[in-house]
Amino acid sequence: MFVQFTTWDIVRNLLEGGKWTLALSLIAFVLGGTAGLLVLFLRMARNRVAQALAKGYIELFQGTPLLMQLFIVFFGLPLAGIDVSPWLAAALGLTLFTSAYLAEIWRGCVESVPRGQWEASASLALGFTQQMRHVILPQALRVAIAPTVGFSVQVVKGTAVTSIIGFTELTKTGSMLANATFQPFLVFGLVAAGYFALCYPLSLYAKSLERKFHVAR
């Protein structure tokens, strides 16, 4: 039986899918940021083993496609006896991906802080964690805000890949609607408009932050 879809029906369903795209992006960014901060501390630690582990972690997730990472989580964990839903696999895969990139972005920001700040804080008998918390990170934050917001655009666009493992976000919803309505140009045009509506404001905000904090000079 053929079901007639109006343009509003298509838009309404895409808005529902967009809601899950936004939710997944927020979860991946918040959890990825938390994990990325931990990786950053390991990457900047004076312990060579910790540095090597953090560097290997970053290179692993930066050097492999996000799609492969999602496949390993979604199909690999069940082989180990851990059942995962598409929602959990998507959140975990994107969190790991985001944490690696944010850790490397933030490392560059931390290293932009003049070496004299490290030496001055060390002369006050501050430990590594205290140096990072009270001296280095507050200064690095000024530089990190713009690229961090900019990377959030990549996280939003990265959610589209999760449609491959069955997570019903904006792209997956669009694919199902295109098959049901036989109007792929209309449907995927609206999908593209949805991603643009999510990403463009973030891009503008990142640029405004660059100007505000004068990090481009």
From TrEMBL:
It comes from the Bacteria. GO terms for biological process: amino acid transport. It is found in: Cell inner membrane; Cell membrane. Its main location: membrane. GO terms for cellular component: ATP-binding cassette (ABC) transporter complex. Keywords: Cell membrane, Membrane, Transmembrane, Transmembrane helix, Transport. Residues 18-206 form the ABC transmembrane type-1 domain. It is a multi-pass membrane protein. The keyword Transmembrane helix applies. This is Amino acid ABC transporter permease. The lineage of its organism: Bacteria, Pseudomonadati, Pseudomonadota, Betaproteobacteria, Rhodocyclales.
